Structures are given as C-alpha cells and as structure tokens.
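Exam review. A common question shows you a sequence with its structure tokens and asks you to describe the fold in words. Practice with the pair below. Do the first one on your own.
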Amino acid sequence: MSEPKSPTPTPAGDTYKGWVFKWTNYIKGYQRRWFVLSNGLLSYYRTQAEMGHTCRGTINLATAVISVDDACNFVISNGGAQTYHLKASSEVERQRWITALELAKAKAARMQAESDDSGDDFPPSSLPGGGGQGGGSQNSEVQSTLRTLGSKVEDLSTCNDLISKHGSALQRSLSELDSLRLTGEAGDKIRQVTERATLFRITSNAMINACRDFLALAQSHSKRWQKALQAEREQRVRLEEALEQLAKQHNHLERAFRGAAQAHAIVDNKGGAGPGKGEASDEDDENEFFDAMEDAPEFITVPADPQFHKRSSSNASGLNTDLCADDQSLNEEPLAMNQESPSQELVPLKKRRARIPDKPNYSLNLWSIMKNCIGKDLSKIPMPVNFNEPISMLQRLSEDLEYHELLDKAAKCHSSLEQMCYVAAFCVSAYSTTVYRTGKPFNPLLGETYELDRRRESGYRSLCEQVSHHPPAAAHHAISDRGWTLRQEITVASKFRGKYLSIMPLGTIHAIFEKSNNHYTWKKVTTTVHNIIVGKLWIDQSGEIDIVNHTTGDRCHLKFAPYSYFSRDVARKVTGVVMDKDGKAHYVLSGTWDEKMEFSRVMQSSRGGENGTEGKQKTVYQTLKARELWKRNPLPDGAESMYYFTALALTLNEPEDGVAPTDSRRRPDQRLMEDGRWDEANGEKQRLEEKQRSARREREREAASQRASSQSEEAVDEDSFVDHSMKSAPHDSYKALWFESCEDQFTGEQVHIYKGGYWETKELGNWEGCPDIF
C-alpha cells in the first residue's frame, strides 16, 4: 500500500494509541485506522482528527475475547455483537498491542466487579476501611492508595503470566534450533528466535516499569501511612476521653435536675411561686458541651434526662409553657390528642387489583442507544418502551399520595411545629417508592390527564394534567375531606452524563390546611440513577429541602446525604431540624428516605466549640427519646417481577369506567406494555408521538393565521382595535383544559392552578370538550 509506515503505538498513562489495519469488507479489505485504548474501551477513528467528534466504533474489553491468528493478525470479539479483525505492521507491533489489551482487559474486569458491588444494599459501615465523615480525608486517601497499589499488583501478575507464556515459546524455539542441522531452514529459525527474544524483552520491560512504579508509589506513601495511622490512634483516644466526660456531665445534670425538682416541691408546699434553684440550668452558661468531630453532621443530639418525659405542665415552670404542652402531646401516640373522626368508618367500595402481568425478560443493548444521548435532555429523545415502566409521569406524580395519612394527621395537629414534622415526613415519604424503581415513566402527551379518586376509601381525590410539552410540565391538584389541599406543578429536567443520569424536578409543592390556615411550600431534591452503562442500576437522592410555613414563619431544613463509599453513616440518610420564626429549634428529625423517619423533642441546645479547618461550630441538641413518625409499607409479594410497584402503584393503571377520554389509563401504548406486548407498544408509541407533533403544527398554523388576520385589519384601519398580545403570542397557543396559568402569590412563579369543573363534568358524563390525543 502507498500508506506511510505506521508509527509505533505510544502509551500515555492508561491510554494506548496507534495505527492498526482493520478489516472492513471484501471490496476494500484492510483499511488503516487510528485506535485508542483507554479505560477498558477500545475505540477507533478514520483519522486522528476525528477523535474530538466522531467515533467509528467502541468495544468493551471487560467481556471481550482476544485471539491471535498469525504473525501479524489478531481478533477482538465480545461474544458476537462486535468483532474486530485487525492486522499490525509487524509481529513486534502486534505483540505490543496484545500486551496492552490484556492489561486493559484485566483492569476493566476488576472495575466492572467493583461497580457491580457498589449498588448492593449493604450499609457503608460494613465495608472494610470505610471512613466516616469524622476521619474522611485520611481514610479516603488511604483507600485510594490501596486501590492503586492493588491495581499495580494485578499488573505485575498479568505481566508475569505473559512473561511465562513468551518464555516457554522462546524455549521451544531454542530447542528446535538445537535439533536442526545446517540447512536452508536455519536462517528462518534464527530470525524466529530473534523475534521471540524481542517479544520477551518488551514484556520484561513492561514488568520492570510496573515494578518501578509500584516501588516509587510505596516509598512516597509509607511515611504518610504512618502519620495517618498515628492520627487515627490519637482520634480514638480523644473520642474515648470525650465519651467519658460526656457520661460524667450527664450524671451531673441528672443530679442537678433532681435537686431542683426537690427544691421546687418544697417551695410549692410552702406556697411559694418562685422558681427552684436548679431550674435555670437550661440557660446556664457554665454548662459544658463538646465539639463535633471533623466533617461531622451540622448538629449533634444527646439524650435528655428520662424524667423529662414524665413532667407535666404543672411542674415544668423551668421551660416554656407551650413547649411542655407540645411535649405532652408528642409523648403519647401521635394523634391521641385528637379524637375527631368521621361519623362512620370509610370502607372501600371496590376491590383493587393486587397484581399486574409480570415484566417480560427482553434483552436490549443499552449503550447502543444511550451513547447518542450524552449531554441531551432525555425528554426530547425517542426511547423504546424497554426503558419504561407501565405508568405515566402523571401517575408517578400521584404516587406522592402513597402516605396521605401523614397529611391527615398533620391536619389534626394543634401545634404548627408538630404539624411541620408530619409535613416533613410526607415530603420524605414521596421518595420511598423510588428505591428500586429504575424504569422511566411514560412522558405524558400534551393534554393527557390522570384522576385518582380515593374519596370513599381515604377521603381524597387527585387530578393531574400535562399542561406543557416543551418543556414538559405537569400540574397536580389533590383535595381531601380531612382538611388539606396539595398542589404542585413539576417540570422535569434530565441529563445523561455518561456514567449516571441526573433528574432535576423543578417547581414548588404547596400544602394548605383548612383548620389552621397554614400554607407550606417546598421543592424536590435531585434524583441520580447510577451505573447506566456498566453494573447494577441503583438510585440515590441528594440535596437539601427547606419547608416554609408562610403563615407562622416556621421552617424545616432537611438534608438528603448523598451515598458515599467511605461514609460510616447509614445509607440514604435524612436529617432535619424544625425551627420557629425566631430560629429556635424545637424538633430534630432523622431517618432514611427509603425506610422510616423519627422525631425528637429538643429540650436544650448549645453551640459547640470550633471544629474543623474552617472553624465551624456544631450545635448540640439535648432531646427526648426519638419516636417513629413514618415507616415505609412493605412491597407486595412478587414485586421484583412487577417493576417493584407498591400496592398503590399496582392500582394506578387499573381500568375504570367514567374517566376522561384523555386519562392515562386509556393510553394504548402504555396498556400494551403492561400486557407484555412490547413490540406493539413501541409501534403505538411512535404513532401517538407523530399524532402529537401533527396537532402542534396545526396549532402553529392557526396562530400564524390569526396574527396575519390581525395585521391585515390594522393596515385597513389604523384606528381599529388590535389585540397587541396576538403579536407576541407564542406559535403554540395551547391552553390547558382543567388548569389555568397565573402567578403564584407566595413564590412569584408562573404556575397552573386547578380552575375547577373536572369532577362536575365527570358526574354529568359529558366529555365533549376533551381533545382527541389517543
């Protein structure tokens, strides 16, 4: 060929690059291509200039088979889906690639095994060497170094195997050379021995370099390991001392409180009304509190004296009166102070289904679709139903009401601070249904609705409508006979980042209680789906939520801790503090978003000393015994074969009579997917999306025609009235049917609020105004 001689492939860290001839077809034969080996993936390009924008193909070496055909040819295959027939310019160059590919394959296999383990539901504290936030930076560094050293050891092992293999081949060649007489074959055998010796030298050099890297890394980190070990020992000693002193402090406070109680009892017997000697201890400046450990949570809780639980409002003058009243209500069963109940028990009128058809086991090459989605909004990319679950986003939004009883309890609370605890628990409970749900809900069509009428069973009914398509936005309104209203408009933004998928819900959730007129607002946190390409899919929630009571000024700050391999904390942890308008803490919330939440009454708080390099102070809360606020319901039997649906989710797509023709239950592609007919569902999905695009184009034509008509009238008569809003009207003039757009008075956002009429229309059975979207 007229191509210039291929340059020697050059390694750059874990990356290996070079020209290799690749078999294309019987007409063109082998063609020169630029190959790049990086992070366990072998990619190729027509030229080096294509590396920035066009990849011609990629194969994952973790599951690939590497075989040698002859002196210069070798084959890479991943089991039939992809096979590369390659040819190097010489046997030496081929062996360089084989060595690099074997090393990359070993690393990729280890990375895949570690990635599979990362999604297991084990607490981080059970992992070896898992550092908590208190020892964070040092343990992270040690773990990183150990993984690097382990990788180098594996490299040495791989190189050792290759040396053994090439050494045996060299020995066989030498033996054959010794047995030959001086004939014409002697020259060929000598050249073969020379090439074998060259291969052996290349592999030996690779092993020597790996040994040198290992030794240099070990030497540079030995002193650092010693310091880290010493720091861990000193930290343990400090913790033991702090624990001992804390126990002494607890005993001191207990004795002081008992003395104060006795003194107060004596004063009461004498008819005195003044406070006892020890009752001002709640504000005693001499009380000693300890610093939080470095990188610890924002606050620390310690148990209060058990006698706090038995105090009544008559003998607790050392504390605020309203505090004791709330405390009394919280030490009983959560709703024992409210005995309001309907005159008759609500019983279901309809038996709901408890199963749906099992999920079919269809295989799909995820990477072949997702590689074209990197950096794009997934709401604008057509996806097969293989990635979906058989419910729509409107139904998924209605699942927020899975634990509606928390709002029922909140509506009965006399204290706004206690009510805030239940609202916070309801906010967290909405994420409990997502822990195993890796499927994507169907994107609703514009104008699609979903009703969830549980008025007879649970006292509420809910309506959702897709009010916008780009960006996709859904409005939700739920009202309960038990004194609360929930409304929200959520726009979902999603980005595929290669290794994970980020889902960012945008919008504000409102909860309004009729009896107290309290109005709460909050936003959702970010959902992350990990291991999109390799490994087991798993979901995490992370971020912070501020729940605000706009009536009283009370606030609750919730923190969803992101999962960390090195954290000693329980996975999926959520912590929070409920404060009044003055910033005084009244309750501490703790738990996990997938299991349960607990609350503790704050009896006393104090700022700790400086902690960490930034000099931050930690708050120490002295609390009563924690009580359960919410607990997740167990999944139905066989949930793993039914998309991990909860008991409520199994009923969401159950056919019902009398619903609107735009209801998600009537969507044909979703129904076909639930029945296991995925190929037909994909065809229906494409038909519905094309029908939606046609409807949008028709609306744009009508809007353009109206604008042209207005401009024509204005040209005929300059004094004639012209609706100038038509000039700036968007091309798509769609308006929601059951919701109207307005400005939210609390957030200032432009939102859609339920304008009424749906349930009245349902009673009449007159759906003439509904669009034909299915």
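Now try the second one, then compare your answer with the model answer below.
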Amino acid sequence: QENTELWHRCFVSDVPIYFVPLTCICAGGSCGAGDGPNGVPKLMDLLDEPVPGVGTYEDFNTIDWVREKSKDRDRHREIATKSKESVLALMKSISDAFSGWLLMLLVGLMSGALAGGIDISAHWMTDLKEGVCLNGFWFNHEHCCWNSNETTFQERDKCPNWKSWAELIVGTNDGPFAYIMNYLMYVCWALLFSFLAVSLVRAFAPYACGSGIPEIKTILSGFIIRGYLGKWTLVIKTITLVLAVSSGLSLGKEGPLVHVACCCANILCHLFTKYRRNEAKRREVLSAAAAVGVSVAFGAPIGGVLFSLEEVSYYFPLKTLWRSFFAALVAAFTLRSINPFGNSRLVLFYVEFHSPWHLLELIPFVLLGIFGGIWGAFFIRANIAWCRRRKTTRLGHYPVLEVLVVTAVTALLAFPNSYTRMSTSELISELFNDCGLLDSSQLCNYANVSVTKSSSNALPDRPAGQDVYTAMWQLSLALVFKMLITVVTFGMKVPSGLFIPSMLAYYHHDWVIFRGWCSPGADCITPGLYAMVGAAACLGGVTRMTVSLVVIMFELTGGLEYIVPLMAATMTSKWVADALGREGIYEAHIRLNGYPFLEPKEEFSHKTLAMDVMRPRRSDPPLSVITQDGMSVEDVESLIAETSYSGFPVVVSHESQRLVGFVQRRDLVISIENARQRQEGVVSASRIFFTEYTPPQPPNSPPPLKLRGIMDLSPFTVTDHTAMDIVVDIFRKLGLRQCLVTHNGRLLGIITKKDILKHMAQMANRDPDSILFN
C-alpha cells in the first residue's frame, strides 16, 4: 500500500523519526484542516503562530518573574541580532533602548502636572470652607489678598476682597451669630466634600480609596490587581484626593500621590510594546513612579528614590535606580515650574534652619524618638483593630455613612481650635518655622521689652506672652485630637495618606542645664527643629522608614547640620517600634487584606522541611497532574473544570511520576480554545502531546495538539528534605510563584507562595486562612 511504502521510506537506520511521516504524507498532496490522505491526521502545533493571551496572567495571581525576565532577554537578544542586518533594524534597536528614558520623562511630566493641580485645587477648596474671594471665586485666601492695598501687618489675613460666609450672609464677622454661621458653613462644606469623595469612589473606582501604598508594594512584588492602576482609578483618585483633603479629614496626600504617579506610569506603559507585554519590565517602571510620587509629595527627589528602594520596591536593579532618579528630577522640575504655593518651593512647609544644635540636645531628640516609636506601635495596633472591625462587622456595609460621621465629628471638634481648623500643610509649616520679627503667629507672641535694635529678622530673647501659653494648650489638644481621629480616618473609603504628627518644643534658657551654651540675646534652641524631629520620629515609628525619611526631612530643611538629630530620632523610633511590633503600617495592612506578600525583612527561623509544607498532605487526594502523551482534550478540560489550581505539573505517566515540566492553567485554556476556533477537526477526543516528537496516530483519528511550546521545561524543583528557610529565600530572591518537590526525580508535591505564607502565619500563631490570594 502507498501508506506502507511511505512509512518505510521515512525510516532511517531502523530508527523511526516520528515527525517525518506526516510531512511525507502532506508532501504527496494537499492536506486539509483535519485529515491527510488516507485518513491520516495532520499534526497541529499551536505555537507555529503566537496565540493571543498565552503567557499572560489572571487577576489576583502572582507573575512568574523568572519567565518574564527570560522573555525579555530573548526579546533583547533578537533585537541585538537583527540590528546587525540593516540600518532600519539598528534604528529600531536604538529606539528600543531609548524608550525607557522617554517613558520616564512622560511619567515625570504627567505626575508633576497632576500634583501641581492637586495642590492648587486643595488649597482653594480648603479656604472655600471659610469664605470666598469677591474678585474671583477661583482665588484662594492668600492669592485674593496679594494685590490688596488695604491689608495691614497686624491683620494680614484680612482684606476687603475676601469675605467670610458670615459677612456675606449676615453682613458682619463679629458676634456669636457670625461665629455660629461660620461654624455651620465650615461643617456643611466639609460634609459636602467628603460625601462627593466617597460617592465617586464607590460609584466609579472602588480601588481609589485608601493610601494605595500597601497595594502598590504587593503589585511590585509580582501580584496582579487589574484596574488598580487603571484610567478610571487615576481620574477618580485625583478628584477625590482634592475633595478628601479639602474636607478637613485627618489625612494627607503623600501616599495617594504615590498611587497617582503609579497610575500614570501604568497607563503610559501601554504606549511601549516591551512594557505593555512584560509584567516584570512594567514593575521596574512602577518602582520609578513610586519615587516620583514622593518627589512631588515632599519636594524631595533623592528621598523619593530612596523611599522606592527602601520601602516599596521588590526588584530594584541599577538601571531602575538611574531611571527613578531621572523621573523624580523631571517631576520636581515640573512641579517647581507650576509653583502651586507661590513661594518658589515644591511644598508649602519648606523651612530653613541656620542655628546650630548642641550636643546635650541629643537627649531630647532620643526622647522624641522613643515617643515616636511608642506612638507608631500604638497607631498601628489601633488602626488595624479598627479596620478589622470594619471588615468583620456591619460597619463595613455603610462606607458612606461612616465617612460622613467621621467628617462631622472632625469638623465639629476641629473648628474651635485654630490649629486643627487649618490644613495639615499649613499646620506643619507654622510648627516648623522659627519665630521672627515679622511673624504674627500666636506662637511668636512674646512680651514686649526694651531690646537693642537689630537689622536682622532675628527675634531677641524675650519672655513668653499670654498667647504663647494659649497656643501651647491648643497644640496639646490638637495633638490628642489628631492622634485619635487619624486612627479612625486612615483606611476609610476615601483617598487617605498618613498625617505626619508634629510636635513643638518651647524653652526657658534660665534652667541650669542650658547655662552652658545659652548666652543672653542669643538663640538657645530651635523650636521648629524639635517639631521637625518629632514629626520624623512619629512617621518613622508608623512606617519604619529610616534612610529615606532622614533624606526627605533633610531636603525639606536644606540643612546638613541637622542630619545627626534626625538620624538619632529616626533610628530610636524604629528600635522602639520594632520592640513593640515587627510590622510597619503598610505591612500590617497587606496582612489584613490577605495579599501574598513575602516580606524581605522578616526572618524565617523555624526548622521545617519542604515535605512539611508541600501539597498534597497525607490526608489529601493525589496531586493533579497531566501526562505528557496520554490525555485527551476532554481529560484536560475536565481536570481544569474540577480544580482551581493555577497550573499543573507534567509527568511521563501516572505510574512513574517522572517530572517533565509545568504548564500554566491560563495557557492551557487559551491554547485549547484557540485550537477549537482556528482548526477544524479538533474535538474532545483529540490527543494532547507535550513531547518533542509526536508518535503516529491511528487512521481516522482526530488531529492531535502539540502544546510543548507552552510548557516550562525547567521548573524550579527542590527535594523533599530541603530546609524551608532555603525555600523561602528562593521564593524571595527569584520571585517564584510555585516550586515542585521531588524525591530521586519522582514528583511528590508542590509548594506555592500561598503555602509558604500560610505556613509562616501558622508558625507565628496567626490565622493561616487570612491569606486569601495566590
């Protein structure tokens, strides 16, 4: 027979070459989509052409860092090879190399412009709660009074062009009725702003709530949260951040600005193919975007780069460091060009200190660090307890009502105290700045005594006036109020960053311990410096930042000589907070939400083996596997339908359990669906092969599918006696999503990142079921 002759012709030295017979048969005539001549089926290889969707990931799953980096190396190798063939290919190679820097430029420009718009809008809407400008409602209080010729030094905040709501409604700003009217309008505007913020978040972009940094840390570690960095999230986050800050809630815009910058980077990544198609490359851009967010939030480009490196990034190669620096520079330049505060600075509370500090002052600096550490540990525990209560009780079912109640309480308690009524940035600016002859603040109201006239703006040594003591009481009440209300506010369904708690120190130079360096008429200590160190200590206690926080505060003050006090307070704060609890606020929220984040700072000290963690356990059903050549399409589809696993090991046979490779669930589903749509004859009885050579099929059988191309031929494996601390290090440093466990080459089980996190939670006496995602 003809078929037999062809078979004999395709034998070489009595060794059958399986892929040749089908080629020989097809060469003899035209082959259809199903069978060839005499009913012999044609072999299907789905990877002759790229299949859309293969190599991508489902929502709430972890990426395979090793596979993504391998794909990028292959892509780069191909471009480098082609660049030697023609001038056009060389130009494409140069364009590919330059695309990363162009993307950083665009991210910096877009983030800086949005940050400038947010600052200007928030400043205007905050002042709108107290009054309106008659020259134009779009002017805030300061801009409204800039051109007024009737503003006096004593009443610099009052000008005819700016009218309070009481003046507009009842015609006067004096008396109890006017005070009540201003009070009522302040509360009403605050409620309106917060209601709009929570309603927009709930209706259009639920991911726009909160700080965003815990989720960004998780995303940068390789987790997929689709829509979290999308277009709608960016639009709603930008709008509602302005509304939330303007409502007077005890929150900041620093964390949300990091989220906004990462949204910009994610959207712009879609303009460049190599970032759009590779999740690992995209995360390098997001790491740089996190630096951009801090750069525009604090006006600290270098601090932003260190923040990304120290706090949020999981994978931070040297190339990302350079690009982060460039993007932060562009963003800071853009914000400076916009000049949102009119002071030629990047932030409202930029200060400059020139007075030296004294060695003995290290004692109060360390005490501030101790306070900051205790406060940070208290804040984390209280906030997580409140957020857990929100999740597990009916309180979480009414986010709008919760936001309105907290806003009403905040506004009612904040208005009577001038230090809680003003915005967070204005409060920090007032506390950070030193008193001068031109200051009209209550904190600078010292008694008038006969002093020698000085040409400088320095304030000579004078006793404190009555307003200073009043201000101290108000600040003490503001501190307690902010501490308590921030616990409830952080985590609500509005964009919210952490408020930086600030402290103020005032002095009396007649004390014995000060006589060594305090000379009459000279500055003894700098109260603004104590406020800055206290703020750094409290923020360090909450977030556990160290190097990046010191650099951020240094860039705010511009004083090299204050690095040592900042370092002392920040380090002490971290030590104290770590002694009371190992997690920072962002790690605590990651654990609360059940995200699969392997904390690099957490040590694994337990003596367990891979066999103790792998699945299946002794009481579990056998491991679900796919054989390399013994299963049909129907068998594989049944296995997919009956399980929820993200992938399956491929073995030689059920009996031998010899490992061949690993295939992802999503790739299997997409490949089979694609074959059914594009190829006639593929039915449930079609055989699936993961082998290199496909054996001949019986006559009249449906065409087989060759899926070897979607299989990982080199999955990471460990033996069953590998120590778990080594396994944990492998997962952390390589970014694995799963690891196979073998014994003498025979497959025993599998360990996923979720299994490791559950095991670590169990070892730490926590609920292992709190880990929700893989």
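Model answer, second protein: DSSP finds 28 helices and 15 strands in the chain. Confidence is low (pLDDT under 50) at residues 1-44, 453-458, 499-515. Full marks require stating both points clearly.
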